[in-house]
Amino acid sequence: MIVLRGLVVSLGVFAIAYLGASLAVAALCRILTLERLRPLLYAFRTAPLWIATLLVGGFTIPAFLSLEPRTDHEFIGWFAWMAAAFGTAMLASGSVRSLRACLATWRFQRGLLRNGRQERIIAGQRVHEFPDPGALMLVTGLWRPAVLISTAALELLDEGELEAAVRHELAHADHVDNLKKLVLRFCAFPFFRALDARWLEEAEMAADDSAARDQSTALDLASALLKMARHRSSIGLPELSLTLVSGPGVALDARVNRLLSAPFPRARTHRPVWLAVLPLAVLLLAHYGWLLARAHQLSELLIR
Fold first, then answer.
1. How many angstroms separate the CA atoms of 252 and 74, rounded?
2. pTM, whole model, 2 decimals?
């Protein structure tokens, strides 16, 4: 019974924390402009998942294990059962969505590689060619991302444009953007579609920054974007993939204008998230015992 009680408390706290944090993030998105959130956009978007996980793993479970009386006669109230059921449904649905996305991506990648014509070395990277009448270049996969390019794209782009485009896709792999998309798939929330779309735009611009090393490569990449957009492939893509040309035409125009107008060398500002989190972590550790006691009191209120 005590194991069941601990499981109900943990799932209930996760559900309440995740829902509350998600609603808070959605409300902040309406108050703040997404441009102001740009440096920490992904961290802001995934904050509800990490907050709920921290509260359960860092406080609720340790408090329950250390302070909960070892008795099997404590009553579990209906609200605790409902919260636990909601938490179970959230975790189960997120796991199913993530598994489906992984399987669809694996099948798509395996099918293209099986039907691929040959491998090429472009910008020092092994690129897999596949037959398709439309122009398409993408990086797909999680642990071993593969860069795939259609025959039409190879014929369409010149050498400089190909190298710039491949470096763009390699930047997505270096930034583990497909893995980030998987996390977003796991913690999907109804009010976050605009935030998800904006993060994807930022991920594309970050990959553009990595690929455009100087004015010449920026021009090559801009030219590749325009050519690929005019001859875009109609093939259905899996969710855990990133193409050279994605999103609406407005976003594409913004990327091209940015590549053509930005000065070089481009200044890159790095703002490590840990600099903002470190003071909070020190504060939590300094009062950890007191926080565990409060966490146990709250879990007692939840379970009644």
1. 59
2. 0.86
